[in-house]
Each structure stands twice: as structure tokens, then as C-alpha cells.
Design brief:
The chain has about 60 residues and is mainly α. It has a domain of about 30 residues. Helix content is about 85%, strand content about 0%. It is built from 2 helices and no strands. The longest helix is centred in the middle third of the chain and has 41 residues. Essential subunit of the Sec protein translocation channel SecYEG. Clamps together the 2 halves of SecY. May contact the channel plug during translocation. It holds the Pfam family SecE.
Length: about 60
């Protein structure tokens, strides 16, 4: 386990290319925007299906 942690640390320190601060901020904004859009899409689909299921059960009761 210690060897794994040591090798992982060396990999992160020597072989990973980290983005610049500006690039990290830009990518964070992109991820946030797409997360909000996906959340709105899921909310919309959930609302439509909820109304359809409600209409179906109202129709069955009639």
C-alpha cells in the first residue's frame, strides 16, 4: 500500500500536466453551465412524466 501511494505521488508530481489557473477557471465555468443545463433538462423531463402519469391515473379513476 505504501508503494502504491509513493508511486501515485511521483506520478502526480512528475508526469501530470496541470492546467493554468485561467484555464482551470474557464473549464470550471463550462462544467457549471452544462451541469445547470442538464439539471434543467432532467427537471423538465421529470415534470412532463409526472403530469402524464397524473393524467393517466385521473383517466383510470374516471
Amino acid at each position: 500500500m505504501v508503494n502504491y501511494i509513493t508511486e501515485s505521488y511521483k506520478e502526480l508530481k512528475n508526469h501530470v500536466t496541470w492546467p493554468t489557473w485561467a484555464e482551470a477557471q474557464k473549464l470550471t465555468v463550462i462544467v457549471a453551465v452544462f451541469s445547470v443545463l442538464l439539471a434543467l433538462a432532467v427537471w423538465g423531463v421529470d415534470t412532463v412524466f409526472s403530469k402524464l402519469v397524473g393524467m393517466y391515473f385521473d383517466w383510470i379513476k374516471s
